[in-house]
Amino acid sequence: MYNDSIEGVVPRKKIRIREYPNTNDKNFYLEIKHSSVEGRFKTRTIVNNKKVDYFKKAGVFDSQYGTCLPNFYVSYEREYSIIDDVRISIDKNLVYESYRTKNVHNDSNIIVEIKTSIKKNLDDLVELFPFQRMRFSKYCFAADSLKQTG
């Protein structure tokens, strides 16, 4: 998954267990993000604590990648803003922790992500937000920061 993400290969997936600490949502979610030539979409399933513990020990089996074991914990603070039909998320205080070694990297970057409907004109977005576009993966940054790609 790391190599596919770095190289921009499609189709590719990202598999993660997600939680929302410090919110009213106390669920864990198994999320699978799919990137293909047709576009991107995400599947999301609520999983209980017992299943999360199982995934931590045995991994999540995927038909494309095989058994996927946990590599990193990624945590951050997120703020949202909405302008017209554009949702902006701002992530800061990013912390990457190796699941195996417990090594930690604190990231001082601030990640801004802009999301809107497919119908939105790209020229309008560029005019509203004249930023350089770039791909960014917290997972890949964690792997690079902690010198761990396996």
Question: What this model shows, in words?
Answer:
It is globular, with a radius of gyration of 17 Å. The strands form 3 sheets. Strands 6, 7, 8 and 9 form a 4-stranded antiparallel beta sheet that branches. It has a 3-stranded antiparallel beta sheet with strand order 1-2-3. The protein has helices at about 1-5, 50-60, 120-130, 140-145, and strands spanning about 10-20, 30-35, 40-45, 60, 65-70, 70-85, 85-100, 105, 110-115. The chain contains 4 helices and 9 strands. A hairpin with an 8-residue loop joins strand 1 and strand 2 (about 30-35). With about 150 residues, it is an alpha+beta fold. The protein folds into 2 domains: about 1-70, no CATH class; about 70-150, no CATH class.
Mean pLDDT: 92
Structural class: alpha+beta
- Please tell me how large the radius of gyration is: 17 Å
- By DSSP, the count of extended strands is 9
For the record, the count of structural domains works out to: 2
Shape: globular
Topology at a glance:
Elements: H1 2-7, E1 12-19, E2 28-36, E3 39-47, H2 49-58, E4 60-62, E5 66-68, E6 72-83, E7 86-98, E8 104-107, E9 111-115, H3 122-128, H4 138-145
Defining key terms:
globular, 150 residues, alpha+beta, 21% helix
Summarize this structure briefly.
With 150 residues, the protein is α+β, with helices and mostly antiparallel strands. The protein has 4 helices and 9 strands; from the N terminus they run αβββαββββββαα.
